[in-house]
Design goal:
This protein is α/β, with parallel strands linked by helices. The chain is 27% helix and 23% strand. Helix 3 crosses helix 4 and helix 7 runs parallel beside helix 14. It starts with a strand and ends with a strand. Keywords: FAD, Flavoprotein, Oxidoreductase, Quinone, Transit peptide.
């Protein structure tokens, strides 16, 4: 039987026959809904025949017929009423199941998030792109779209979004640009590691969004619900529609705290913290200062994550404090890494290993955090080493710094812009979408195989701006991205290993080796991180001043 499960209480499937009803009942269903009008097809049993067979099998049956391609608002309301009244689980059917999936989507639109509806129907094999505006509008047909149109629409007001808006304005001041983001506050996230190490105050990493939006850029303070790239449209919460000539997608990624059982309930207490949240980074420093003895866990989930070095930066700065205060001998440091290497670019590993040994930290590879019991101070890891059966191990802790699992935002993963893994699908050189020529992406949300860091976005913004302007002028892409990313690994207070690399792990140092050898811990790199990069971020990168970030030109050949 072709059952296509949407939720635990609801499945859909193509046309059934009376002979199928015993198997449907045996599968645990208690009700059926027919959404296909009688007489639509020559080989189609009438509903009365289905109803009698259902009754005989102990099932309730309901008839909510809908003409193919004409699902009305009243039909969705009738379907919703049937769902509320019938015993569950329910199986709905039509010729292919599409009408049934559509009716469910519209009926649930008032109580479920659009991304959840689109994800559930997509997983069942049904594309709801044709009714996405109605889903966003609470299941009802919009009566007034109220379209606004811009030359360029940018989704996301983080480091990537504001930087690319500024870079576009500096190249073509007359462009009408809209930036879509519901947030009031913009954060300098690379600074949170330093907050967790007691070096920065959290307040220095936050500014109002309004103070950073480039002059002449329209800020639409709203979340995106869905995309219609075939119509050059972005659908906002509340079903407002924004049209564009060109679209740039850079909303960052989603920190999936809920993927680890028990984690949400214990964050910020019971010794569980994370530098990946503005409000928790100060708690990290409190825990580090307060720990006199015991076990400290530092976790890293499977890739991809933003700033792959951040989980171990927390370890190094914590270890350095315990070393300087004479407590290190009483503290058991454990690094629990879901991956199989300390760092993905081998040239930087020897310097890092010296600090792993200095802080007497144990490296536990292929350990992925799956469960936390905060009050009991126990963490459970799935251990999946190559060529061995996965096992679970539970470890006691006194302090735990967690790096959460990460994925693309929900509204991206269910959109036509996403690849099979949920990331925006781009050409890794031009950062142009592989399917939609007037769409570009940068920052953490796109699928180029580079490190997800602010330094990467700093390089990508001018490249996207250059290529968008070239496209507006009727030309081909003019700039190519080499995968540059930077990860300043804070190995102790006052020294950093400055990892700079591109696609394939190629080393891409910004400075000559005699001035700053990135493969070794240096004071110069620390000064860069502590004193130079924050003002470069606020006053240059976000303002369209492309210091040391001029895009490489595409060469013909």
């Amino acid at each position: 039987m072709d059952f296509r499960k949407i939720t635990d209480d609801m499945s859909v499937m193509p046309q059934i026959t009376a002979d199928d009803l015993p198997a449907i009942a045996a599968a645990g269903y208690r009700s059926i809904i027919c959404n296909r009008p009688d007489g639509e097809g020559a080989d189609q049993p009438a509903f009365e025949e289905i109803r009698k067979a259902a009754e005989k099998a102990g099932l309730q049956a309901r008839y909510v017929p809908v003409v193919s391609g004409k699902v009305m608002d009243e039909d969705a309301q009738a379907f919703g009423a049937a769902l509320r009244e019938l015993p569950k689980p329910v199986l709905a059917y039509c010729r292919t199941g599409t009408r049934s999936a559509t009716l469910w989507s519209l009926a649930e639109a008032r109580t479920r998030a659009p991304a959840d509806i689109l994800a559930a129907t997509k997983a069942a094999g049904y594309d709801m792109a044709g009714v996405v505006r109605r889903i966003v509008n609470g299941g009802k047909t919009p009566t007034d779209e109220g379209d606004a149109r811009f030359d360029v629409v940018i989704v996301g007001g983080g480091a990537a979004g504001i930087s690319v808006a500024s870079s576009l304005k500096s190249r073509k001041p007359g462009l009408s640009i809209a930036l879509l983001d519901p947030a009031d506050i913009h954060y300098y996230q690379p600074g949170w590691t330093m907050v967790g190490g007691g070096i920065f105050e959290a307040s220095t990493t936050a500014r109002t969004m309004a103070s950073l939006i480039p002059q002449g850029v329209h800020w639409i303070k709203s979340a995106v619900a869905a995309f219609e790239p075939q119509n050059n449209a972005v659908i906002l919460d509340g079903c407002r529609v924004v049209k564009y000539d060109r679209l740039i997608v850079c909303p960052g990624l989603k920190l999936d705290w809920g993927k680890v059982e028990g984690l949400v309930e214990t964050l910020g207490k019971n010794g569980v913290t994370s530098n990946y949240r503005y409000d928790l980074a100060p708690y990290t420093w409190e825990l580090v200062k307060g720990l006199k003895e015991g076990r400290a866990l530092f976790t890293q989930p499977p890739m991809p994550i933003k700033c792959a070095g951040a989980p171990q930066k927390a370890l190094y700065l914590s270890g350095d404090h315990w070393f300087r205060t004479g407590r290190l001998k009483n503290i058991d440091i454990q690094f629990m890494n879901a991956g199989g290497v300390l760092f993905g670019v081998k040239e930087y590993v020897p310097a890092l290993m010296e600090y792993v040994q200095k802080y007497d930290a144990d490296l536990n590879f292929f350990h992925n955090l799956i469960r936390v019991d905060g009050p009991a101070k126990k963490a459970t890891f799935k251990v999946a080493k190559p060529d061995t059966e996965p096992t679970e191990v539970t470890v006691d802790f006194d302090m735990m710094h967690v790096c959460p699992p990460q994925c693309a935002p929900d509204f991206i993963r269910v959109s036509p812009l996403a690849d099979a893994a949920g990331w925006v699908d781009v050409d890794q050189a031009t950062l142009r979408h592989k399917t939609y020529d007037n769409v570009w992406s940068l920052g953490d949300v796109m699928n180029a195989p580079n490190a997800k860091t602010a330094a990467a976005a700093r390089m990508q913004a001018p490249i996207v701006a250059e290529n968008v302007v070239a496209d507006i002028r009727g030309g081909s892409p003019r700039a190519a991205y080499n995968g540059y990313g930077s990860c300043p690994l804070t190995v102790e207070r006052g020294k950093i290993v400055l990892a700079e690399f591109g696609y394939g792990g190629a080393l891409l140092p910004s400075f000559p080796k005699w001035l700053l050898d990135g493969t070794k811990p240096t004071r110069a790199a620390w000064i860069l991180k502590e004193q130079i990069l924050p003002p470069v971020y606020w006053k240059a990168m976000l303002r369209g001043k492309e210091w040391m970030a001029k895009p490489e030109k595409v060469t013909a050949g």
